[in-house]
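assembly run, all chains below
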Amino acid sequence: MTETSTSMPFSRALNAGMRRAMRDSDRVLLMGEDIGRLGGVFRVTEGLQAEFGERRVLDTPLAESGIIGTAIGLTMTGFRPVCEIQFDGFVFPGFDQITTQLAKLTYRLEGTHSFPVVIRIPYGGHIGAVEHHQESPEAYFTHTPGLRVVSPSTPNDAYWMIQDAIASDDPVIFLEPKSRYWQKGEVDVTARALPLHASRIVRRGTDVTLVGHGAMVTTLLQAAALAESEGVSCEVVDLRSLSPVDYGPILDSVRRTGRMVYAQEAPGFTSLGSEVAATVMEKAFFALEAPVLRVSGFDTPFPPAKLEGLYLPDADRILEAVDRSLAY
Amino acid sequence: MTALEDPRLVRVLAPDGTLAPTPEAEQYLPLVEALTDTELESFYRDMVVIRGFDREATNLQRQGQLALWPPSFGQEAAQVGSAHAARPQDHLFPSYREHVVAHIRGVDVIDIIRVMRGLTHGGWNPADPRNGNTHIYTLVLGSQTLHAAGYAMGLVLDDRCGTGDAERDEAAIVYYGDGASSQGDVHEAMVFSASYRAPLVLFLQNNQWAISVPVQTQSPVPLVRRGDGYGMPSIQVDGNDVLASYAVTRRALDEARAGEGPRTIEALTYRMGAHTTSDDPTKYRGDDEEQWWAQRDPIERMRAFLAAKGASDAFFAEVDEASRDFAADVRARTLALPGPSREQIFANVYSEPHPLVDEQRRWLEEYESALEGDQA
Amino acid sequence: MSSQTFVLPDVGEGLTEAEIVSWRVGPGDVVAVNDVLVEIETAKSLVELPSPFAGVVGELLAGEGDTVDVGAAIITIVAEGTASGSAPTAPAEPAPEESGGAVLVGYGTGGHVQSRRKRPIERPVAASVGVVAKPPIRKLAKDLGVDLTDVVPSGPAGEVTRDDVMRHASQASVFRNIETPEWGQVREETIPVPAAPEPELPVAADGAREESIPVRGVRKAVASGMVQSAYSAPHVTVWTDVDASRTMELVKRLKSSPDFADIKVSPLLIMARAVIWAVRRTPMVNAAWIDGDAGANITVRHYVNLGIAAATPRGLLVPNIKDAQNLNMRELARALEKLTLTAREGKTTPADQQRGTITITNIGVFGMDAGTPIINPGEAGIVALGTIRQKPWVVDGEVRPRWVTTVAGSFDHRVVDGDGMSRFIADVASVLEEPALLLD
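ok done. output:
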């Protein structure tokens, strides 16, 4: 890795970011199933155990609650653990430790101790995976006070946001769009462009604001390109931080365009998109020409992989919502 | 109920207070004999004072001063013995009934009262030296066993154990009950601590009941056998015998801190009171059983033992008075506790500033100030 | 405290009541703190309640077998060393009330709800960047083809209101669909005037290409009235521009005044009062030229039946407000409102339109500054209120944007001479400039 901007896949960027964090502080520790010798099922932690040893990169027993619970105990001796949950669908055995313990301990201890645990979770569809390997569980975590939730969409963001998540004194759920692990992008290793909890306008437009996170950002950009050819100019916002949400750029955009479409892989009922839509309607009421529309996964369990193309919002589904919005 | 006559059982003090070590207890006698009279008297004093405190707290609940009280009544010996066995540098993880343990390690019992009174979720700062490295109570059953396992793993990674210097090497002890022992987290804690050879003692107080469910529903075989399955030494002790409780815990902790890995202890005791003040044991257990255990009371047998050793009536009277004074002081301090402030709702949700929390704190401030009768 | 009261606590996390099973003490008994006072039965269990106080039992406030609500007093205990006969004071809440005011733990979930809400303070809605308009107004604007950025907002938060859109629509509709052609290459164009052909008598409508509207009813009457008026009375029109900012301000204040909360207030109201006032000073405008067998008369009226020209579904009508000079501001506003509503519903009666003495025509709604209105038959003057809009004006030597309008009037020159009509129009304009003149 050179000291300038360089092109690398998303998973490499994560690897580089963690490597840098581990070099910067010997309190940073990685733990998870198959992350050491194998380097992780997505190879995100490849080479790290070789460099830092078994005391800094732990292959844990196969027990998610155990991983999170012991990570909590490790912070009490001064470590900053970065846990890997192998797949989105497997976070649930650890859900209790995340929500009743990790999220609440600082509050319960009245601020006398912080719990700087990062929980990395590969999420989302588009890889033709089996059950429990393609979900988007962000709403369970954004709904839990005490947790921070973020999701990078580009290798550059992956590189910087993993470091910032590790540096945060709060628990961070770090959602990695697994369908983007092998996509390459420019990474500027010299300077971070944005703070961890900032959202970003990634494409300028005038007619409709499109909002999403992680893998969805690419889909939104595809939709925007198609819309352009039809004479509709879309602005695209990458949420980046799901909790807290940085509403500044979103509201600025909506006040200019007057219309918004939020797209997410997760089922729509009581989703993050619902929260963002309600808040935007409240804060930009007078600017809205149309109600905020949501394009989401259907309210069913994630279907078998052969059906995911129909299930997941794609450019056409997003444009359908754009059309509806423009009709107002 | 679990038989107290399992051949693995370690007991030194018979229910009538005479020294009658079981076969398994022989190996622990040197540790018992090393205890000084002062230490023995302090064991007794601690048990009596906290039983008095426990009763006072129950009364306070009945008088509307506390929302809830989970009594430690009947479990004093297991807690006193094990807490005294821990060294100053050790870290203790209670469940929610270890009032005796907390008191011995230096936690002000009024901090426990504050939790049960609805003023705070935590009560004290485990990092404050005066609290003797005692973690706060955990109400989700068994969760703390994983936290303790992680802590012990941290000790291994940082070489804070296993050097051979017992004064310096650290260990952790986690308390949980027979009900919690069925929870997955407890098993995962055993898996992790065994896998990393962590200096952790898992101390199970089998008080025979998980609210209304008898221990037989949690396991058809003695719980002490679980540790064997996870590859760690497992000791069963008469939890109403403060001397045996002390000795087994002392050795287990010292072996763990020396690098020999985790251990489990099953302390057989009895929950003399209800699960909490919301519970009614008359609905699921009988007088006979309670009477049977009352004859094996931990304080009575220690009293008999000390009396036989020559402790004076004046000593016992002084302890009783100290217990009454302690309880009266707790009562007075409880009634004087100030209410929480509105800011507490929003304080410490995160370690770093958070815009949504800040926004809502400001909102509530404005909202409350526009109402009549500001409720600070 | 001489007497302390123990109220029933919630002993089991959410209980609302309990039954008194048996009292263990009676009045006069000496009790210490924690002595058992009573056994109660709750939904969950039998519980003994220990005494929170030391002293002598005063009164048992509930009987065995009674069901008592959590929070109700059950026993009084008189502190030692005080007279047992002293009257019980108000129930003494245990200490937390003294120390922090927090709701006492253990006093259950139910009970009496008290609202602490005061009347809400008026909070202005923060306007966002750009046009401020609620969604229904946006829809209305879109349906009417109104560009919101052109509309002057008059809402309290700076938003465009429904009225703003409606007013703008009626003004602007005239200008839609008219394109301004570019200047062409040709500098002059000669148009031959062909010899006048045989006058072609108008024929009946040619099917789909033309529409024939028979002249009947109101239109016929109005048309003949106009012809008669225009070609008998020599019309002279005078006009003046005036800074009507103070009138706009007054209208705004009246609108938000509770006295006018339910009445429509507009600049027309002020104009009406202005006309009535100005008539007093120049009575000749409120007259009529009457032709008679013995020659002509000018009848000067000393009352004002104020006509308001109204475009209605039936056509142009001029109903009038009888004896408008007797009405105060509110009454006049009501009368104007009623007149307008009636006209809009097409219910104006002939009587409404008869015996008018002077008329106002509001051409401002059409976006016009001024015009040469035709006098209503039987009258000698008609005043036109033009559109009121922001224009540069010189105030204290500086050019500033002010609300400017034109007041115009056409008069029958047989009745009103030049200085009369000028004075009259000037008077009306001065009221618009300084409505305080109406306080005369």
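Chain B touches chain C through 31 residues (CB under 8 Å).

Chain B has 14 helices and eight strands.

not gonna interpret more than that til we talk
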